[in-house]
Amino acid sequence: VLVLSLSIRGLPGSPTVESMNNVEWTDDGPLELSPERGRFALLYSVVEDKTPFFSLSVARLALPDLGYINGKFVSLFAPGLSYLIAPGYLVGKYLGSSQVGAYAVISIFAILNTLLIYRIAVSLKASKTAALIASLILLFATPAYAYAVALYQHHVSTFILLICIYLLQKSKGFFSQLVAWMFIALSIPLDYPNLVILFPVGIYLLSLAVDYTKGDKDIKLKIKPLNILAMIGVVPPLLFFLWFNQLSYGNPLQFSGTVQAIKVIDEAGAPVLPEIAPGETKSAISFFKPRNMLNGLYVQTTSPDRGILWYAPVLLFGILGTLLYFKTSQNPIAVVIVGAVLANILLYAMWGDPWGGWAFGSSYLIP
Fold first, then answer.
1. CA distances from 59 to 21, 40, 44, 258 (A)
2. Residues with Cβ < 8 Å from 45, sequence gap 6 or more?
3. Fewer C-beta within 10 Å: the chain N or C terminus?
């Protein structure tokens, strides 16, 4: 907690409409990178302006990750993180630094992740010492540390994955399944690829809803109504997601990443619309292409600029640990864990930008 508290990126004071585009906040400050600016811009608009639409100053802050639809500037990022960090922003503003308060929320999730890794490892029969070392390895011996003190969604995505695993380890009851379904749905407005990463968890939850007995010539299936009822946990997060899309884009099924992107705003405050080829449309899945997989796997694993071999070689022990664990245990939750890891790696190997920036190693593989 002390290390993270002293590491959070930030400045005293709170950015305003007049100051947010100053170099002290942007190029030389905590809003240096466009993913952080874009999410902070939506946070500022929602909290201060009470609208998902950007004023001209906020829109300039969000560039080059800025959307334009129905004559209004909007966010190109999924909305979940901006709403999630709003309490930290308000507490920080009261204490004199709204930006630090917002960033501190991510550090809180990083701390929760270390606690969850510890509890999960102990429940998988690891010693308490080994479990503690494992949790600290994630936080301080991988790129997770750099992203624990900045405005990125990866630690929150990791928390959702870990809390689902922890809940399902502790109990297979109705309440655990209800909360797990809720978190799966909550992960979508946080970061759209989470739906793929959490897919193994969803499959496991569905398997709990079916009992089967194998006879000589047939298999008898029995549906558990209470387990099916637990799926209503997805409703509140999805309603929020559809509401935000309708409010922002005029279409509940419009994803933020499919909105027209604006790279430039002229001196008069008008967007400079890029040329679009006839029939060209943006798709939420067009960013992922199997043809990228070979290069993506190289970038994520062995490349000297981003590869996990260079930035977090200690994680290679995880491969050995996985093999040893499966030799001694048949715990189905271990299959879910490995499935989520493989889904994460393969998904971002197909991503059009597997580098995810040029510092600290891959942020995509934190989950």
1. 10, 11, 11, 18
2. 51, 52, 53, 54, 55, 58
3. N
Q: Are 314 and 141 in contact (CB under 8 A)?
A: yes
Give the model's pLDDT for residue 181: 97
Crossing angle of helices 128-140 and 98-123, rounded to 10°: 150
How far apart are alpha carbons 244 and 256 in whole angstroms?
Answer: 10
